[in-house]
Specification:
The chain is built from two helices and no strands. By secondary structure, it is an all-alpha fold.
Length: 97
């Protein structure tokens, strides 16, 4: 998503700069497409670097601050919580009297 947003921002900036400079429309579009490709690539690279950094930070935080066993939720086979959107039991067909 970051790559796409950065790519579109680069495309828009190149279009505005080309129009403001009075460049030929074809030249402006070619430069805008090149800016789109370059900025999308750079944005994707930055997003992947950011993802790795966040994952490492979360892993380090979890390691430094473990959840005590007394506070960890126990696995359960109980019925889903009210309001979860999952029916507790499938609806039963109506019986003839």
């Amino acid at each position: 998503m970051i790559g796409g947003v950065l790519g579109l921002a680069g495309f828009l900036a190149a279009c505005i700069a080309g129009i403001a400079a009075g460049a030929d429309p074809i030249t402006t579009l070619w430069r805008a497409v090149l800016a789109l490709i370059l900025c999308t690539t750079v944005g994707a690279l930055l997003a992947s670097i950011g993802l790795v950094a966040v994952r490492e930070h979360v892993a380090a935080h979890r390691e430094r601050n473990p959840i005590p066993e007394s506070q960890q939720p126990e696995p359960t086979t109980a019925e889903p919580a009210a309001g979860s959107g999952v029916p507790a039991q499938p609806p039963q067909p109506a019986r003839a009297a």
